[in-house]
UniProtKB/TrEMBL annotation, chains A, B:
Protein's UniProt keywords contain Zinc: no
Biological process annotations from GO: response to stress
Domain HTH marR-type: 38-195
Organism the protein comes from: Methylobacterium bullatum
Gene Ontology terms, MF aspect: DNA binding; DNA-binding transcription factor activity
Protein name: HTH marR-type domain-containing protein
UniProt xrefs under PANTHER family: TRANSCRIPTIONAL REGULATOR, MARR FAMILY, TRANSCRIPTIONAL REGULATORY PROTEIN
Keyword Transcription regulation attached: yes
Composition-biased stretches (Polar residues): 1-12
InterPro entries linked to this entry: HTH_MarR-typ, MarR/SlyA-like, Tscrpt_reg_MarR-type_CS, WH-like_DNA-bd_sf, WH_DNA-bd_sf
DNA sequence: CAATATACGTCAGTGTTGTTGACATATCTC
DNA sequence: GAGATATGTCAACAACACTGACGTATATTG
């Protein structure tokens, strides 16, 4: 509880210090963003992304692959014929990093290279049958999560703020992206901040 | 371009194969989700999150800290008095992993520990003045990005799909979370998939 | 009070994924 | 043919996660 804090000199223990302090609300014509809500969105994005990549992570682990492999598979699957340079630009990693995981995927036959037609220096990347099957499975669970979050956003009571703008929508979407069993924990955590702000 | 594909036997190079194939649209009463749009959201989430953590990453790098330090600072800052166990549950990492970064932050005086009052085994975590100042700065840029994305979502033309549900809203929000200079690249990438799907 | 459980810290080893720097090879462009 | 470009590779290193094992302080319980 927040009264446990003894206001020691060097400690900045105040209820969610500074936070936003009438942060620039970028021309939001329907009133300024309530300070706490945006903080919630920042954290919801963290939790949502964690669960979003959690499913694929677990599935890939069974193949001995990691998240880096997933990203390569994903973009090669969805954009067949991608070149190395394009993939590097998408992933924003070094070619050495890419090559390590790409080599795994090629050796295991999930991705194949084809020499470019117009430019024979290029190695166009494609998924093999097995790579496509695997990636389709990964995509399926991620698409399902997103589609459900869009279709059934979680109604927000904690903040209570009924803002016609996108705050409530974004919050509902992100909360719905979180694993259902974990939503209560997230909600009660954020309620703790809201409480200490009173 | 997709006609570059020569339909080799072992290659699954079709235009965005399987993808969704009338994926379960979980009781979406306003029509099923167009297959491509949800795929876009999956990728937008990747790009949005990348830029979302990019700013703090760069700022922390100057202090010799990384993303793990940021996460600890963030939650200790926003939830002063957090215990180790609570933090572990939030971050979902092992105590060894936490301890490594936490030790850095404590040694450098950004975080302080206080023995719990009711339970003297607990180490309650608080930000020091410097830790609070640093974290407030990190929070500021993240909150600004989110607040702007909510206030000025990016209108979607690429998909053209005008769906009253949350798809357009989510897409606009996530696209607005992406660094402005990079949006064109993302849009043209996803247009490439849409093109190959015709 | 003694036994057990809990909260936390730490040592040691390992794996994934990122980095930098240097260098090689094939191919395209001028 | 010279130089730029696309890709591959070797080596070293760092951040951040993991497992397993063990130690200490404090709380709880029979």
């Amino acid at each position: 509880m927040s009264p446990d804090v003894t206001r020691q000199s060097t400690l900045a223990t105040g209820p969610d210090p500074l936070s936003l302090s009438e942060e620039e609300d970028g021309q939001a014509e329907s009133g300024p963003a309530p300070e706490g809500v945006t903080n919630d969105l920042v954290e919801l994005l963290f939790f949502a992304y964690r669960d979003f990549v959690g499913d694929p992570d677990r599935m890939l682990a069974e193949y001995g692959f990691g998240r880096a492999h997933h990203r390569v598979l994903h973009f090669v699957y969805h954009y067949p014929g991608l070149t190395i340079a394009e993939l590097l630009d998408i992933l924003r990693i070094t070619k050495q990093s890419l090559n390590r995981v790409l080599k795994d995927l090629i050796e295991q036959g999930h991705i194949v290279q084809k020499t470019g037609r117009s430019d024979r220096r290029q190695r166009l990347l494609y998924c093999s049958e097995t790579g496509a099957t695997l990636t389709a499975e990964l995509t399926r669970v991620q698409v399902r999560r997103v589609a459900r979050a869009i279709a059934d956003p979680v109604a927000d009571e904690p903040t209570g703020a009924r803002d016609g703008n996108g705050f409530a929508a974004a919050q509902g979407f992100l909360m719905a992206m979180i694993e259902p069993e974990e939503r209560a924990a997230v909600t009660s955590l954020m309620a703790r901040r809201a409480r200490s702000r009173r």
